[in-house]
Amino acid sequence: MMTRRLGNSDLNITLIGFGAWAIGGDWEFGWGHQDDADSIAAIHRALELGINWIDTAAVYGLGHSEEVVAKALTQWGGRRPYIFTKCGMVWDDKRQVGYSLKAASIRKECENSLCRLGVDAIDLYQIHWSADDLAETKEGWAELAKLQKEGKVRWIGVCNFNLEELRSAQAIAPITSLQPPYSLIRRDIESEILPWCQQNGIGVIVYSPMASGLLTGAMTRERAGALPPEDWRSRNPEFKEPKLSQNLALVDRLRAVGKRHGRSPGEVAIAWTLRHSAVTGAIVGARNAKQVEGVVGGAELQLTAVEAREIEGATN
Q1: Which of 57, 186, 270, 289 fits as disulfide partner to 45, beta carbons 3.0 to 4.6 Å?
Q2: How would residue 315 be classed by pLDDT, with cut points 50, 70 and 90?
Q3: pLDDT in tens, 71-123
Q4: Rounded distance, CA 316 to CA 311, Å?
Q5: What is the pTM of this model?
Q6: Which of the residues are catalytic?
Q7: In a domain, 150, yes or no
Q8: Domain for residue 118, yes or no?
């Protein structure tokens, strides 16, 4: 699988990375029950097909996602992939999720993630969300820079930052990467964020390129209406009317283009995000090996400008 260099790092990452959000299982912002054996099989299949990085977070499953990633890698006989994880979202004994970018909290999170993942250093450590207070965001970023100098993490990045936060962080320590949401139905980063990252040599690894399953082609009106309450998507307006009909019409366009290439709607949606010159790679989640096999083709598909406009016509 083709690779691209991630920002100012020495990491050459495949165009698609394995997203480990859903394998965290049932928690406040989870996808519902998940079988660990299926998760491990999905990770192994992704690695077999050439994917060389896994993106997780401490909060996914309240530590469980990192533990599953570690278990999968202990059973993996090949070369270890790069491991990316995140900090800033914490939880208490009652499993209530909160936020902290205080230096002491960040350091504690890092030590816990190193332990759960069973590694000596994290390849890319990212702030998951900025704090409401810019000063606290800067404090957290400065602590990540210290962890990098100490060798506990190799490279440092941010997620979901706006332009002001990016500029403030960059003034403290170089940002290796930004992880924002980006898909055919979430394009707001195109106007300022992506050009700024490109101008400053910051890698961009986008998440939810298939809009959390909405653009895979497997989501139907009936399935969207029957999502269980423990699945966070049941509360997402994109899965409800009036947006649902618009999004399903977009899927029809993805399907039409994909049919010409023998690709699924989801693979076309992924390929569309990878067309942007500022995007280094896309995070693609999967809950079993079959789902992995159904999306990896997105890394190989190169859409023409005409095809991209045909697809985008559904959103304009």
Answers
A1: 289
A2: very low
A3: 999 999 999 999 999 999 999 999 999 999 999 999 999 999 999 999 999 99
A4: 10
A5: 0.93
A6: 60
A7: yes
A8: yes
